[in-house]
Specification:
Transcription Regulator spoIIAA, 6-stranded mixed β-sheet, 3 helices
Length: 109
Amino acid sequence: VRLQVAVTEGIACIKVTGPANFAAGVDFKTVVNRSCEEGGRVLLLDLTECVNMDSTFLGILMSMTNRLDRIELLNPSDRITVLLDSLGVMELLTFGTGENPFDAKLQET
């Protein structure tokens, strides 16, 4: 699992490559917490290269909804969308498609 991060003007962008699972969960939570401390109010989670999300990662993501103004998932797979819909959490998130506007600024965690 690979996490890349860019924080700009109150927006934290995290790109997940590989499965969003428990192995990435601790690093993901640390990165989001750090960006919140730096004034980040919006999370853009780029899932273009992420095929699946497990319950641990999803739980961490959902725990962030009360700390952030908005969480947007960029290009989630059908599998992830079905999972979120089946758990009834779609209304807590926004969804986008297309290119990541922060791609050039992403750095390894």
